[in-house]
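Lab notebook, design round three. We kept the backbone fixed and only want residue identities now. Task for the bench partner: fill in a sequence for the structure below.
Input structure tokens:
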């Protein structure tokens, strides 16, 4: 029998991502699993602004972004995930794909549940798809949910 004791939920605080939460709660309750609620603050320094862009106070930006994400995570978990018996919060900075994949390995995740955003064309080419990259490279099963197909 498959044991699901650790469920990772990469979350970007969008409306689409929120739509998968009822599925996460249902799975966590059914399997008595711990929910690893994760948010990655993207490290904008990796985009290499170059010398033609005025200097940005990146350290203060990163600090404010982390604090805002921490507050949003606390509020969201206390409201939306209150019915889960065990929730671990993970907040990191970096490339979302890499951070999610690293967490899967480090925490021994049994299942990843994430929303797709349905980007197409140029938008998909420019921004890529975190869900697609995680799905292709994850050592744990990944359940992707298309939020546009869920009933309201």
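Proposed sequence:
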């Amino acid at each position: 029998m498959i044991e699901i004791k650790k469920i990772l939920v990469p979350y970007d605080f969008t409306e689409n991502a929120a739509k998968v939460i009822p599925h996460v709660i249902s799975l966590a309750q059914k399997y008595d699993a711990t929910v690893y609620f994760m948010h990655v603050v993207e490290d904008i320094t990796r985009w290499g602004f170059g010398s033609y862009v005025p200097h940005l106070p990146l350290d203060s930006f990163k600090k404010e972004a982390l604090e805002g994400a921490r507050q949003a995570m606390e509020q969201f978990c206390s409201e939306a995930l209150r019915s889960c018996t065990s929730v671990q919060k993970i907040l990191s900075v970096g490339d979302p794909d890499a951070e999610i994949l690293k967490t899967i390995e480090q925490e021994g995740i049994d299942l990843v549940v994430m929303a797709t955003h349905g980007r197409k064309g140029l938008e998909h080419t420019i921004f890529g798809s975190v869900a697609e990259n995680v799905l292709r490279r994850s050592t744990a099963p990944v359940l992707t949910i298309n939020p546009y197909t869920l009933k309201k």
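Keep this in mind before ordering anything: The helical segments are 15-18, 21-31, 58-80, 96-107, 121-127, 130-137.
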